[in-house]
Design brief:
It is a single chain. This protein has 496 residues and is an alpha+beta fold. It has 3 domains: 138 residues, Uridine Diphospho-n-acetylenolpyruvylglucosamine Reductase, domain 2, CATH 3.30.43; 110 residues, Uridine Diphospho-n-acetylenolpyruvylglucosamine Reductase, domain 3 (2-Layer Sandwich), CATH 3.30.465.10; 217 residues, 3-Layer(aba) Sandwich (Vanillyl-alcohol Oxidase, Chain A, domain 3), CATH 3.40.462.20. It is 27% helix and 21% strand. The protein is built from 15 helices and 18 strands. It has a 7-stranded antiparallel sheet, with helices on both faces. The relative contact order is 0.14. Bound molecules: flavin-adenine dinucleotide.
Length: 496
């Protein structure tokens, strides 16, 4: 869950081969640009026939020097604004994806796949190494047929909620408005309805995927079952470009939201009680506990809980008693009852671009007193860090997430208590102190939580990342990769 600053503010306020291009021609195309100081690749030899690609697609190819280049190359996180991809192909169809992949393959050009552009390590930016970005944002159509939604892989979450919600249907996904359905769902996808409905990937019944060989495939439980398994929790960027998802929806629930906050000195008691209560609460109750310090909170770090309840509104207090009976009274409480669409819009962040560093844990064990003390020391350290807003968010798992076994999809953390996110926002400039803060926080918690991590909060510095992200599912993911990308065409870091 992201949108840290916005959240705080709101909380307090209440297959066939498709398309093919030959490698060489002399059609008078512009030469490739000179490499930037940070980028050198075989693709900078001046022999890439970009014009051929441009003429072979319905979408738009944007290259350095084109008026739109400095707009389309940007990711959501300004820390990557210095990334300069070789080109950005904004695809208009599945065929464009296949054409782009085959072109890249024929010209030995790396590709970066992009949906919402929120990749924490900036892997969808195509900057290092310089790559051809395949941007699927134009594929953002959302169609609803009864209870079944077909969602283009480029749709932002806000658009999906709008199209589904206004027809009285719902899915569970994340809260940030501009996160892409593709990146989020391929890594699992947690959000305010996760305990009530499951992960975003649990609602997927079918995907259209273009694999490294340029083949357009349909992945379901019966067709390409290994690919279908791997794309539900294995993360994006390694197996192919998904072009659309078919998702089961449910009747849109009424959502009761509650925001609670306490003075920071209550933190030890609240953490202890929350970790016992939140993952085992009624499935219809989800909550996140956040402790955030930094310049935004000059007095003391904030201690906030956001809860989402989809049962009868009158029963919310009874549900919260499992927590509130064990902690001091909150100093602030603010409740809202809304329809699904209205609630999801309220949870969504402002969409403003803000530099962010982040990493993660997945929590399998409740903290003992020493663990809680270490956690709170790290939160306090944010006060003198010079960062805008920094700290930790713990998002409850359990509920419907645990109805599936760890091996049922590639998302292995079915038995965990919570996903944990360490975040730091920072003013324009070097990310170093923000990276140091979040990674130092994670390192301090390693003795307590081990090395588990969530692939959607990818961190290139996590050691033994295969085990951290995928546990016992890593071996099967490696086999699926060998089946669908035997030559290692996709070069995104932290592959399997
Ligand atoms: C502000 C913010 C809020 C967030 N909130 C949540 C949340 O509530 N819940 C949650 O679970 N996560 C959340 N995340 C994490 C988010 O799920 C991941 O960062 C996710 O990978 C972003 O997906 P994207 O499509 O926006 O990003 P992108 O950068 O476009 O893609 C992310 C990854 O997926 C790959 N990819 C993109 N499109 C495709 C495609 N069509 N086919 C195959 N691979 C593809 C990319 O190559 C990249 O590796 C949040 C992140 C941020 C920054």
């Amino acid at each position: 869950m992201g949108g840290v600053t916005g959240w705080t503010r709101r909380a307090v306020l209440g297959a066939g081969a498709v398309g093919a291009l030959s490698a060489c021609s002399s059609d008078g195309d512009r030469p490739s640009p000179s490499p930037t100081p940070s980028g050198s690749s075989p693709t900078t030899s001046g022999k890439i026939r970009w014009g051929r690609l441009e003429r072979s697609v319905r979408g738009t190819l944007t290259r350095p020097g084109d008026p739109a280049y400095d707009q389309v190359r940007l990711l959501q996180n300004p820390r990557y604004d210095g990334e300069h991809p070789l080109a950005v192909l904004s695809v208009a169809s599945e065929q464009d994806v296949a054409t782009g992949l085959i072109f890249a393959r024929d010209h030995d050009v790396p590709v970066a796949l992009r949906s919402g552009g929120h990749s924490y390590p900036g892997w969808s930016g195509g900057g290092s190494p310089r790559a051809l970005v395949l941007d699927c944002r134009p594929l953002d159509q959302v169609q609803l047929d009864g209870a079944t939604a077909t969602v283009g892989a480029g749709a932002a979450l806000a658009h999906v909620y709008e199209e589904i919600g206004r027809r009285g249907r719902a899915i569970a996904a994340g809260s940030c408005a501009t996160v892409g359905i593709a990146g989020l769902t391929l890594g699992g996808g947690v959000g305010v309805l996760t305990r009530a409905l499951g992960l975003a990937c649990d609602a997927v019944t079918s995907m259209r995927v273009v694999t490294a060989d340029g083949k357009l495939r349909t992945a379901t439980a019966d067709e390409e079952p290994d690919l279908f398994w791997a794309l539900r929790g294995g993360g994006g960027g390694h197996l192919g470009m998904v072009t659309s998802f078919v998702l089961d929806t449910v009747a849109a629930p009424t959502i009761s939201s509650t925001f609670l906050s306490w003075p920071f000195p209550a933190a030890a008691q609240v953490v202890e009680a929350w970790q016992q209560w939140a993952p085992t609460a009624d499935d219809r109750l989800w909550s996140t506990l956040k402790m955030l310090g930094g310049a935004t909170h000059p007095g003391e770090p904030t201690l906030l809980l956001s809860g989402t309840w989809t049962g009868p509104t009158a029963e919310l207090d009874g549900q919260l008693a499992g927590l509130l009976d064990h902690v001091p009274s909150p100093s602030v409480r603010s409740d809202h009852v809304r329809g699904y669409l209205e609630a999801m819009q309220a949870y969504a962040g402002s969409g403003e671009r803000e530099s962010l560093a982040a990493t993660s844990h997945v929590m399998y064990d409740a903290l003992d007193d020493d663990g809680i003390a270490d956690l709170l020391d790290q939160v306090r350290a944010a006060q003198s860090s010079g960062l805008k807003e920094a700290g930790i968010s713990m998002d409850a798992l359990g509920g419907k997430v645990a109805d599936l076994a760890p091996a049922d999809t590639a998302f292995v953390h079915r038995r965990a208590l919570a996903t944990v996110q360490y975040t730091a926002t920072f003013p324009p400039g070097s990310p170093r102190s923000a990276d140091d803060y979040v990674r130092g926080f994670r390192a301090a918690m390693l003795p307590h939580w081990g090395n588990h991590a969530y692939v959607n909060y990818a961190d290139p510095t996590i050691e033994d990342y295969l085990t951290a992200y995928f546990g016992a599912n890593a071996d099967r993911l490696t086999r699926v990769r060998g089946q669908y990308d035997p030559d290692g065409f996709f070069t995104q870091p932290q592959g399997f």
